[in-house]
Amino acid sequence: MANSLEETPRAARPRPKRAHSLSSVISKLHTLIDVNSIIVSSLDKNEVLKSILEQTKVLMDCEKSSVLLIDQAAERLYFEVVSNDAELETLRGIRLRKGEGIAGKVWASERIHVINEITAAAGHSKKVDLKLAETTRSLIAAPLVAKGKTIGVMEAINKRRNRPFDKFDQEIFTTLSHQAAIAIYNARLYEMAIRDGMTKLYIHTYFYERLHEEFNRSQRNRRDLAVIMFDLDRFKDFNDRHGHRLGDELLVRVASIIGKNCRASDLPARYGGEEFAIILPESDDRGAYSLAERVRRSVGRLRLAAGAEALTVTISAGVASLRAARPADGPALVDLADAALYHAKEAGRNRVVVYKSDMRRPKRGGDEPADRGEGPGRVRGGA
To answer: Fewest 10 Å CB contacts: which of 17, 87, 177, 252?
Structure first.
């Protein structure tokens, strides 16, 4: 069993009315097996953690549960997932130092804490209670440890019917925290595999995997689907004049703009070189055009320092949607957005063009505008 700190004075601890029945123990073991199944069934970190927290409420017979992760750069704990979705937005701004509050103590000591009577002496931080206008009565918190490194803290809060968290609860919660840590670690490995190392947007291969899924879903549900293709204007010239270091900084900053303008359901990707793409489920031409215009304007406001000079850049975009363009499949939808992008380049760059049926699509490596990027099948030009 993991090391623990029980901070409730013995005299103050309520005695459990009865031991766990055999049927209760068997039921909880079955639930733990279900949690293992959840972990192997999905690599979506938040989806898996949300399921684990829901099971935690059942297993621990508590009112709520949460996972806090460590922001390594800021050296602070922050709320990643909570069992009550409505509370997450309220708690987003809370940051806890190492040693601050119970969660901070768990981080510092790397030991499970069981507190059955919350008092000021227990070191409980009031930040969460004040934000939610609630009272924490009891709490069990465990470190999330992956590959020997603490990555966060998991909590179960307020045992129901004012009963205490007991030794069996502690054993169960230790197992749950191990499972949560494994889920986070696996999800992070997967994220590293499907995201571009520099821009942190999704990679080309994953983009097409998801495009296939979204296209089929849109057809099945009779919903629209749009794709935006972006290309930085005259990026080769920029690299040649100012160097690859500044060119990389530009790509990172543009990727950040694209990501910040996307909805949670959108999928932004680095398509290749200086090209980016977004899949927009349940969006039509107008919605996609609006997003692309916001990105274009934001990129136009970028300033990159090169000595005493402040450099500016522009970006072009092409938009196509399922209902308006009627492509045969996902890759065909990308080709139509690419055709619209070609026309944006031809028309003078720094603009967004929506695909129309009379648009001519260039052959790859043929008569494309000279500054089309280094994406798959691209010929790098120099205009």
So the answer is: 17
Bigger pLDDT: 309 vs 232: 232
| Structure tokens belonging to residue 363 | 């052959």
Mean pLDDT over residues 163-188, rounded? 90
Range(s) within the chain of domains with CATH label 3.30.450.40: 4-11+20-193
**Residue 111: is it exposed, middle or buried by C-beta count within 10 angstroms (0-12/13-18/19+)?**
middle
CATH class of this structure's domain 4-11+20-193: alpha beta
Q: What is the model's pLDDT at position 307?
A: 85
Residues shown for the chain: 383
Taking only the tens place, the pLDDT of each residue in 230-246 is 999 999 999 999 999 99
> How far is residue 250's CA from residue 235's CA, in Å, rounded to a whole number?
10
Q: Quote the pTM value.
A: 0.70
Q: At what angle do helices 285-300 and 244-261 cross, to 10 degrees?
A: 140
What's residue 120's pLDDT?
60
CATH 3.30.70.270 intervals, the chain: 204-354
**Taking phi first (over 0 means left), then psi (-120 to 50 degrees means alpha), and beta for anything else, what does residue 82 get?**
beta
Burial class (CB in 10 A: 0-12, 13-18, 19+), 79: buried
Q: Is a pLDDT exceeding 70 seen at residue 370?
A: no
Which class would CATH give 204-354?
Answer: alpha beta
